[in-house]
Amino acid sequence: MTDTSLHALDKETITKAYARWAPVYDLVFGAVFERGREAAISAAERIGGRILEVGVGTGISLPDYSRANRICGVDISEPMLQKAMERVAKLGLSHVEGLWVMDAEDLRFPDDSFDVVVAQYVITTVPNPEATLDEFARVLKPGGEIVLVSRVGAEAGLRKALEKWFAPAARKLGWRTEFSFQRYAHWADSHAGMRLVERRAMPPFGHFSLIRFTKIGETASRGADQPQLRAAG
Ligand SMILES: C[S@@+](CC[C@H](N)C(=O)[O-])C[C@H]1O[C@@H](n2cnc3c(N)ncnc32)[C@H](O)[C@@H]1O
């Protein structure tokens, strides 16, 4: 589904916004999103193996993954990814297989490449969330999981009104405020082979949720032989 609403995002706005955020991102969003990141990593590591983090940003979560896993990271913003590369070099993060500038809606990996696809605070920043989830499902192995931490819009009341009011400003900052849980549930219902397995409220103020989907099929196995990455960069 393409988002044709008044407050739809476009990639140029997003890349400009995150080029501005890159120098201060960790300072502003480091602590506030920490609990969500911890929950996402813990969910991803219950499966483990080869993990793709989409919208990896400055690589703030990379040091928190166990060295037993292999992590691939992609992001549309070169300045954000540059910070991630510096972090990998500075901390010697040898479990990071690679980092690529890549669009979440057009992942240059073969089908069934990853045991887990993680996207933290990303789905509400992409122009076409459902097309992006389709890509996540495509590159995921059967038995694997998509693990999201994402903003979920209020269904009613004052928060809903505030989200609507703040939407135009939020778009310039690089994200949507209005985004119903029904969109995630509907995507899973309409995507044969994918099943919603968890929704858990996350801080701050429960405005975010950990959302997990599984790809029906044989369980993804830790350390199994992996398909090779197609030329990417
Ligand atoms: C709110 S930040 C989250 C960064 C990181 N995941 C974290 O936990 O802090 C959103 C990230 O998604 C990236 N992003 C937005 N749209 C994207 C797209 N279409 N493809 C890949 N990355 C995208 C942005 O550049 C930014 O780094």
Summary of the model, kept short:
With 233 residues, the chain is α/β, with parallel strands linked by helices. It has helices at 11-21, 25-29, 34-47, 78-91, 129-139, 157-173, 181-190, and strands at residues 50-54, 70-75, 96-101, 114-120, 140-151, 194-202, 208-215.
Question: Can you offer a commentary on this structure?
Answer:
There is one protein chain. With 233 residues, the chain is α/β, with parallel strands linked by helices. Helices cover 35% and strands 23% of the residues. Helix 5 links the parallel strand 4 (114-120) and strand 5. It is globular. Residues 1-7 and 223-233 have low confidence and may be disordered.
Alpha-beta content class: alpha/beta
Main beta-sheet annotation? 7 strands, mixed
Percent range of helical residues: 25-40%
Query: How far from one another are the termini?
Result: 27 Å
Bound molecules: S-adenosylmethionine
What proportion strand? 15-25%
Q: What is the radius of gyration? A: 17 Å
Q: Give me the count of strands.
A: 7
Indicate the overall shape: globular
Contiguous uncertain segments of 5+ residues: 1-7, 223-233
* Average pLDDT figure: 87
Assembly state of the chains shown: single chain
Enumerate how many helices there are, as a single number: 7
The arrangement of helices and strands along the chain is HHHEEHEEHEHHEE
The order of strands across the largest sheet is: 3-2-1-4-5-7-6
